[in-house]
Amino acid sequence: MNKKTFTLGIFGGGQLGKFLVLAAKKLNIRTFVFTDSLDSPAIYYCDDFIISNYENKKKIDFFIKNVDIATFEFENIPFKTLDYVEKKIKVLPEPSIIKILQDRLKEKNFLNIIGVKTTEFYYLKKINKKNLSNNIFPVLVKTLRLGYDGKGQILFKNKKSFLKHSFDNKEYIIEKLINFKKEISIIICRNQTRSICYDAFENLHKHQILQKSQVPAKISLELNNEAKKIAKKIADKLNYIGTMCIEFFVTKKNELLVNEIAPRVHNSGHLTINAYNINQFESHIRAVCNLKTKKLKKIHKATMYNILGSDIKRYRSKTMMKNEFFYDYGKKEIKEKRKMGHITKIF
Ligand code: ADP
Ligand code: MG
């Protein structure tokens, strides 16, 4: 293994990892991927990789020895692992931030403390199930940790069905279901000295999985700027380094509520590959490797569609139009609802 050149370590080997690796390559940065899955798109593009569970100390030590800085493509890498790595080399964004954002309750408490509005929420362990007011239904009950693409969420239309349900986990968060006008996300990238922020993307979810993102979002300039201001406040308060995504609900009254924060590059930002001079992945690499940031420029309007499960087969044989860009993540196993690829149309 050649350790003469600067090497960036990346935990996670999914499609986000793959795009990070490609962005690093463009900047002449070597990459070393640590993934727990054989079916990891990123391993075909990086310089080195390890396939192991995220708790294997021997493998982690080897990884530490061979990288200069570590980052991650998803936030559910065990905190203990990131914390251990950080004692030896820099991990960005910092694990102490991930500890807050890995946990929906800690995340919402943090947001409310800094004065950022979220959905109305309750902690299930603390409250007496029966005391929950009828007025807050319908609700979504979410696990505190490890949720993604709607996993770990249950919808209860009324208190009766909620009381009848027996919960497996010890702790949950209960959120009032928002009858929102639309969903948007802001991708912000912050380095030691400044932050750059993409315009709001408008997102459409189906069965709690992102289906489509588009830029520009059909919102007013004021709302776009307000969302960016909130994103900047969050990034500054966390002293965050790297790319981060803030998901918002826009209420019927045009109020912004933060739904969740993803401390990493994000699916809604895939369109930045074709719509901007610098995509969210390159921005992340530049920030964590302390390279100069560049001014963001939107080159195209764009819409991105996720391709789930066996739908990928249809796209593999489809002839694309001039303005269509198809990305096949190259995952071996096709599973229902698994993100297999995406297509971005530019205008
Ligand atoms: P995940 O980690 O799975 O992305 P989210 O909390 O972002 O979890 O939920 C996924 C999607 O489910 C959201 O983008 C939104 O469409 C819907 N959703 C989540 N929470 C609420 C809520 N409180 N009210 C209405 N819709 C919600
Ligand atoms: Mg989400």
What do these coordinates show?
By secondary structure, the protein is an alpha+beta fold. The protein contains ten helices and 18 strands. The chain has helices spanning 15-26, 57-66, 79-86, 95-101, 104-113, 159-164, 221-238, 272-275, 280-288, 311-316; strands at residues 7-11, 30-35, 48-51, 69-72, 90-91, 121-123, 139-143, 153-156, 172-176, 182-190, 195-197, 201-206, 209-215, 242-250, 256-262, 302-308, 324-328, 339-346. The strands form three sheets. Strands 10, 11, 12, 13, 14, 15, 16, 17 and 18 form a nine-stranded antiparallel beta sheet that branches. Strands 3-2-1-4-5 form a five-stranded parallel beta sheet, sandwiched between helices. The protein has a four-stranded antiparallel beta sheet with strand order 6-9-7-8. Helix 1 packs across helix 9 and helix 3 runs antiparallel to helix 4. The protein is globular. Adenosine-5'-diphosphate (ADP) binds at residues 119, 140, 147-150, 175, 177-178, 183, 205, 208, 247, 259-260.
